[in-house]
Amino acid sequence: MFKKLKSLFIEEIEDDKQGKAANTRPSSPAPPPRRTAAPVTGDTSTQPVTPAESSRPGQVSDKFMTILFGAMDKNNLDGFDYLEFKNSLNSLKKVQQTDEATRFKSAYAMAQTMGVTKEKLLQTAEHYMNVLLQEERKFEQALDANMQKQVGTKEQRIKALAEDIKAKQAQIEKLRAVIEKSKAEHQKLKSGIQDAKTKIENTKADFIASYEAIRGQIKRDADRIREYL
Prior knowledge:
Layout: H1 2-22, H2 62-74, H3 82-95, H4 100-112, H5 118-168, H6 176-228
Helix pairs in contact: 2-5, 2-6, 3-4, 5-6
């Protein structure tokens, strides 16, 4: 069933991506911002870590598509439901040169022979969107834990170093070398946090793109069911 799920959605998602690309005019990319080293002062507590954002738009990821399809497969309902209806639509698309509305009506006519109603199709489509929503919540929890693991300890270390720097600046000149070494480590850790946050945000963007691609397709089908049936 997992392979069938991928075949039901992947082709249409790729078609959507190609359609969007064709309707988007290419533009000259903006030059990347110049990075300059932040000045290091004695009071490092006034130099907060800049919140990270994804460095690129989210992309549909095979890794996350596999996770989301796996959740849908695990929660597949018995009998003829939205997924079987989706399969019928795909089959009609391959064999009939008809418009979308006609395909929806033809697939629904076949579904009715098995006792399926419009309400059941909408209810089961909602079921799979809820499955995806649960996966989104689990992903957010895992992302928060990963952020704390990769960033939280570094932030604690930065705080400790800032306090250490402030104390050592009150000492005699012979401690200057120790202070400068701590400052360099402090700045290095801040850079490490920025890179870690960017990587995590890229991962999040990939998940959201994958999630929205599938959910949007299900929602669009549900809208068509309401419109055509």
